[in-house]
Amino acid sequence: DGNELRQLASHQFIGKKKLEVLYLNGSNIRDVHNRTFNGIPSLRVLHLENNYINELRGFEFDQLTNLNELYLDHNAIAYVGERTFESLRFLEVVSLSDNRISEFRPWQAFAAAGETGSLARVALDGNRWRCDCESLRRMQRWIRTVSGNFELQRMICADSRVVADAIASCDSRQSGGVFGAGAEAGEVDG
């Protein structure tokens, strides 16, 4: 917490087998290398918020199979690799708020945690989402299948509309209820 680390190299935490909570927030971290967290299988809570991380390539957390809480909010994350959260089957809380994410498929990224029913809270607000009807339809469908808490009123589209309003706009452009079989793909009118 509050260190000057800049980057986290691969295998940096080898030998810390009993570590359960790790605070790396506010440590000026810019890069997290693949397999940085190998060697800490007991880790349950990881704080990486308030850093300068700009991308997650896909294997940064692959050995953290017991992780329950992951805080990545208030970074500069613009890219999240498809396999980034794949091994986090018991993830309960994840915060990606206040980053630079515009395209992200939580229905794919959190599929493993969704299967176990562990996902309780996902924070995605404070990013500028791409709000085409197809992406919004999939997001809405995914939100309905997981038991998590989502604040659509706090999620904003790249064109500054609230995601919940964009969903309503997509819904009004078609018949058959929220994102029925006749949903149209394309940008939502503003």
Automatic annotation (TrEMBL):
PROSITE patterns: LRR. SMART domains: LRR_TYP (SM00369). Keywords: Leucine-rich repeat, Repeat, Signal. InterPro entries: Leu-rich_rpt, Leu-rich_rpt_typical-subtyp, LRR_dom_sf. Transmembrane segments: none annotated. Pfam families: LRR_8. This is TOLL10 protein.
